[in-house]
Amino acid sequence: MKILRPVLVSLAISTTSGLAVAQPPSGHGTHEASRHPGTTTAPYAGMQQREIKALSEQQMADLRAGKGLAMALPAELNGYPGPAHVLDLAAELKLSADQHHKTQMLFTRMQEEARTLGEQLIAAERQLDTLFRSRQAGPDTVAASTAAAAQLQGRLRATHLRYHLAMMDILTAEQVAMYQHIRGY
């Protein structure tokens, strides 16, 4: 169990937040340098070059694009389809013209909200990064900055989840079951 615990912690971190950057533990408790004399390995090596240390370029692009970043998994994996995937599967689900139109409208609104919140979240993460980079970080400023970022991430996640809920008013029970089957759930 001692070897498995770091793996489980890394998996928990990576699945609870689409923004968490979890690195698998290297060496399962052994130091890399001891396995390769003369070398040292840091799990975050290279990340110090990032514009915002806590976000990769791909994560920022996804936030700017309004992507879900797995934030709606509680809905998706419990039988609440998302608008983007419903549109992708429109033919297989045999959406009516009205269903397709309503789903497209939901998707468009979700994207607008998610993009706005994504930009705000990037700005909040940039502010936190700047506090540390400029050596202005202190207990109060870090608490305020992380609270702001967490609130935005919560609002973004709620946005994606809310639109999964809204899909239940558009699809029939048969379409929801078909969606789950097609998606492999």
Please provide a written account of the structure:
The protein is mainly α. The protein has two domains: 1-45, no CATH class; 46-183, Up-down Bundle (Four Helix Bundle (Hemerythrin (Met), subunit A)). Helices cover 63% and strands 0% of the residues. The chain contains nine helices and no strands. It has helices at 4-16, 32-35, 57-65, 73-76, 83-88, 90-93, 97-133, 139-167, 173-183. Helix 7 (97-133) runs antiparallel to helix 8 (139-167). It is elongated, with a radius of gyration of 20 Å. The two termini are 29 Å apart.
Gross morphology is elongated
Distance between the termini: 29 Å
Quaternary structure classification: single chain
| Number of contiguous helices | 9
Helix content percent band: 55-70%
Please state the CA-atom Rg, rounded to the nearest Å. 20 Å
Series of H and E elements: HHHHHHHHH
Give a brief description.
The protein is mainly alpha-helical. The chain has nine helices and no strands. The chain has two domains: 45 residues, no CATH class; 138 residues, Up-down Bundle (Four Helix Bundle (Hemerythrin (Met), subunit A)), CATH 1.20.120.
Core attributes:
185 residues, mainly alpha, Four Helix Bundle (Hemerythrin (Met), subunit A), 2 domains, 9 helices, elongated, disordered N terminus, Periplasmic heavy metal sensor, signal
